[in-house]
Specification:
138 residues; 4 helices; 88% helix; 0% strand
Length: 138
């Protein structure tokens, strides 16, 4: 796959995820507190299942495109930085957000929810910055 196409795929995934993560950060995660303790367990489990189907394909394509573009042709420094931010997003997701969702899947707890909302800024800023870097590169 040519480097230009990989760059465009990267950008498309990044823009998609940036828009989605801003919605999650500003609207979706804060509304978790409004679900109520009785319905929270079911809500969180459904949230995990449904959200995975929306984010996993884009995240996987983004990761593959981020790695592939570095292997196909010499990449400018901004592309290297954008690819490093992809790794940051994955690390944050696997090390912080997934374990917090695991705790919340056992029932409502205020502390993990607050940590989830606060720590999600890592991904929000990373995807936003990736989008800007890739737009600038193109």
């Amino acid at each position: 796959m040519p480097a230009e196409l990989l760059l465009k795929v990267n950008l498309a995934c990044s823009l998609y995820m940036a828009g989605l993560i801003w919605f999650v950060q500003i609207v979706h995660y804060p509304l978790f507190q409004q679900v109520g303790r009785e319905a929270f367990l079911d809500y969180e489990q459904r949230h995990q299942r449904l959200t995975t189907s929306v984010v996993a394909p884009a995240m996987l394509v983004e990761l593959i495109a981020s790695i592939a573009i570095l292997l196909v042709a010499p990449a400018p420094p901004l592309v290297w930085l954008a690819s490093a931010l992809t790794i940051l997003v994955w690390l944050s997701t696997m090390v912080i957000q997934v374990p917090l969702h695991g705790k919340l899947a056992k029932g409502f707890h205020s502390a993990p929810l607050k940590t989830l909302v606060a720590s999600n800024w890592i991904r929000t800023i990373a995807w936003s910055t990736r989008s800007i870097l890739l737009l600038w590169t193109i």
